[in-house]
Amino acid sequence: MKIFIRKNSTLLITFLIVMAFLITASRGMGTQDFYITLLRALSAGSVVFLVAAGFSLIFGLLDVLNLAHGTLYMIGAYIGWTVFVRPDTFVDLIGPVILLITGLTLTNVWKGLASRIKVSLTTRRLIAWGLIVVAIVLAVLILKRYPIAMWDLENYTNGPVTYSFYADQDMRLPMENLAFEKISPILAIVGLLLSSAIAGFGIAMLSGDFNPSTKKSWRNYVFYAILVVVAVLSVVFNTPLTNWLVTIDSSWLFLIAIVVAILSGVGIGATMETTLIRPLYSRPIYQLMLTIGLSSIGVEIVQAIWGRAAFTMPRPAFARGTGEGCPATSFASWWEHKCATIQFFDGRIRVYDEILIPLIGIIVLITVWILLKRTRVGMIIRAGVQDRQMVEALGINVRRVFTLVFALGVGLATFGGILAAPSNGLNTGMGASLLTSALIALAIGGLTSYPGAALGSFLVGLVQQFIIKYGQIGINIPFTDIVFKPSPPLVPASTVLLMVIILLFLPGGLMGKKD
To answer: Is the CB of residue 372 less than 8 Å from the CB of residue 382?
Structure first.
């Protein structure tokens, strides 16, 4: 018992301090307000955790500071909004997006072919960049003629804000079913496949890591063939698929939006790691410069596609019911009426914000922990970080494992984006503010500690929500008649103050490494 207390003294002290804080806070407000505020703290902490956990995984296992993580969180929200509010745009994009990434699935094949080209390093790089430029030009020329339904940023009545408003009222503006006119479908598909292949070959030549023995394996072509088939089917069945997505229950559509946002994050993360991050593992300063640049580029891309205006994302049907039977008095009543709120201690809590989001946060926490600690993949990841040469000697592709870790981290960020969108809305500054909270949470819990990311995120959410609540009801100053109401700027300042206090005593954070 003494050994256990000695090893976990920091956590026990933290627990006692948190309990003392909660007991003190409960005396300053009613039971109803206290428990609702606590649930909101869990909700806010869960969103912060999804971003902080992804950042912690990437930095702790790969030693890469991905400062574009906040922007990727924002991109996940906008992608999810597109699937949920504009299914026609999503369906139109399935084909070209998949076709453009097919070439990257043949990396080993391209490296085998590139190994046969015997030229100087300078000439090789010139050829590679020339191929990439040709691929981009070809893709742009085709995409300009590809029928993709889009909103009009210059026309407010046909912009994202208007579509969001109608969707929030359970109405939809007419969906567009465009057809190929300026280019034939076959020519568009072949052209995008060619563009992707040229780009993949150019990137392979730039990498310089050639492996000619892998080009003969049939396994290199299986995933490529599957993607091509899916892309072609999405073009052939474009209209039926669009009509189906428009008519299904919004709860199922929201689930599809979540899956698409996560898969998009995984794809973006894998592409970033293989093409941009991998050559810079030994150059941390270049990593910082690159990820900062990618963050700025991501914001500009979002502004160019979705505009600068902030807008909302409707909640799914299972958490927006009103009228008879609402607010729900039990979970059975909520399931029957799909109420937006449920009775809780003579008050109301929002089903989506205060119940679903914390529940998902807990599920993700447990799932990723099991993945890292109780599975063969997790063992390989940890072993690869400790001794990469030994793991490679066992015949395990460590680079592929590192790509998986980076993709998982980005996927968690985009998951957080789509999850938070119905609660917080969408704006181009959402990523920067959330990344700040995530970094503070990681500093509090321990920058390379996955459990520390969870603990720090909970503390950040706890402090923020109680400061917000006391800004409404005020704090009675002892022995005086003064009621102090914290102003909104104190909300982020309070978490910074908490971080400073903890780092003064524990420079590595609550659960960080001692060395």
So the answer is: yes
Burial of 22 (0-12, 13-18, 19+ CB in 10 A): middle
Which tens digit of pLDDT belongs to each residue from 59-78?
Answer: 888 888 889 999 999 999 99
The CA-atom distances, in angstroms, between 398 and each of 61, 215, 248 are: 12, 19, 42
Beta bridge mates, 321 = 339
**b/e code 139-148 from CB counts within 10 Å (16+ = b):** beebeeebbe
For 341, list phi and psi in degrees, rounded to 5: -130, 165
Q: Which residue has the higher pLDDT, 152 or 388?
A: 152
Residue 208: its pLDDT value, please? Answer: 62
> Which H or E run includes 455?
helix 450-473
Six-digit token string for 255:
């689930």
Kindly write down the DSSP assignment for every residue of 155-205, as one continuous string: -GGGSHHHHHHHHHTT--PPPP-----SS-HHHHHHHHHHHHHHHHHHHHH
Q: Nearest-CA neighbor of 74 among 95, 106, 50, 46?
A: 50
Predicted confidence (pLDDT) per residue in 394-416, tens digit: 777 777 888 888 999 999 999 99
Instruction: Look at residue 357 in the predicted model and tell me its pLDDT.
Output: 92
> Taking residues 266-287, what's their average pLDDT?
86
Q: How far, rounded to the nearest angstrom, does the alpha carbon of residue 266 sit from its chain's CA centroid?
A: 9
Sequence-distant (≥ 6) Cβ neighbours of residue 330 within 8 angstroms: 342
The residue ranges of every structural domain in the chain are 2-115+147-182+210-505
Q: Which are the contacts of 216, defined by CB distance < 8 A and separation ≥ 6? A: 112
Exposed / middle / buried, residue 438 (Cβ in 10 Å: 0-12, 13-18, 19+): buried
DSSP 311: B
Cα separation of 63 and 397, whole Å? Answer: 18
Cβ neighbours of residue 411 closer than 8 Å, sequence gap 6 or more: 54, 262, 263, 265, 266, 269
H or E segment to which residue 347 belongs: strand 347-350
As a whole number of Å, the CA-based R_g of the chain is 25
At 361, the amino acid letter reads: G
Which helix H or strand E contains 476, and what residues bound it?
strand 475-476
- SS3 sequence of 290-355: HHHHHHHHHHHHHHHHHCCCCECCCCCHHHCECCCCCCECCHHHHHHHCECEEEECCEEEEHHHHH
Residue in this structure with the two tokens 């990498």, named with its chain if needed: 207
3-class secondary-structure state, position 344: strand
Q: Which residues are CB-contacts of 137 (< 8 A; sequence separation ≥ 6)?
A: none
The answer to whether the CB of 52 falls within 8 A of the CB of 61 is no
**Pairwise CA distance, residues 259 & 415, whole Å:** 8
User: In angstroms, rounded to a whole number, what is the distance separating the alpha carbons of residues 283 and 237?
Assistant: 47
Residue with tokens 């920091």: 10
